[in-house]
Design brief:
The protein is mainly β. The protein contains 1 helix and 15 strands. It binds zinc ion.
Length: about 180
């Protein structure tokens, strides 16, 4: 039987579930003080199937997006101005995707246009600004969609998102289950 999680201030007592967890602990992809809310499980119609472990960070438009770990840029789009709540906008968002040296990738989605000078292959350091929060693509308000994933096969193949272990931040997934009134994992 699942045990109840308990939140004491920002200190979460229950240990993080290791199911589908990322190998490393990542830094927060937006400045902690600027996070207005966050959501993973059940908070977006996009967080289904292999995207189920994504996290949305709600914050103001223009908030810096920070590399959650050092890595190299493997994909990006920076010039879209399109935004909408129909799924046809799914592939219209500005994003940066980084590859890390342990084979995990981080993906930062919905950024404002023209807020990064990065190019494919560029190396970035943890905490480096890689863009600014916007709502391009399939979004109804400014937020950062953040996901950690692995690929199966080639780069364009299937992905599986992982539960991002975030340094200095409570267990998003357990807090979400509690927000939704469900038993923690
Ligand atoms: Zn999302």
């Amino acid at each position: 039987m699942a045990q109840s999680g308990k939140v004491l201030g920002e200190q979460l007592v229950k240990p993080f579930s290791t199911l589908e967890a990322s190998k490393r602990e990542y830094a927060l992809p937006v400045p902690r003080a600027l996070i207005q809310d966050f959501g993973s499980l059940g908070y977006s119609p996009a967080h289904q199937g292999n995207l189920r472990n994504s996290i949305d960070f709600y914050t103001s438009e223009g908030t810096p997006v920070l590399a959650a770990a050092g890595g190299n840029v493997v994909r990006l789009r920076t010039t879209s101005y399109e935004s909408g709540i129909e799924t046809s906008y799914w592939d219209r968002g500005n994003y940066v995707e980084l590859r890390h040296d342990d084979g995990e990738y981080t993906h930062y989605e919905h950024m404002l246009p023209n807020t990064t000078q990065l190019k494919i292959g560029d190396a970035v350091k943890e905490g480096q600004q890689i863009g600014r929060v916007g709502m391009t693509g399939f979004a109804d308000k400014p937020h950062l969609h953040f996901q950690v994933h692995r690929y199966y096969g080639k780069l364009d193949g299937e992905i599986l998102t992982l539960k991002a272990r975030l340094r200095l931040f409570p267990d998003v997934y357990t807090l979400d289950l509690m927000k939704l009134g469900r038993e923690p994992l």
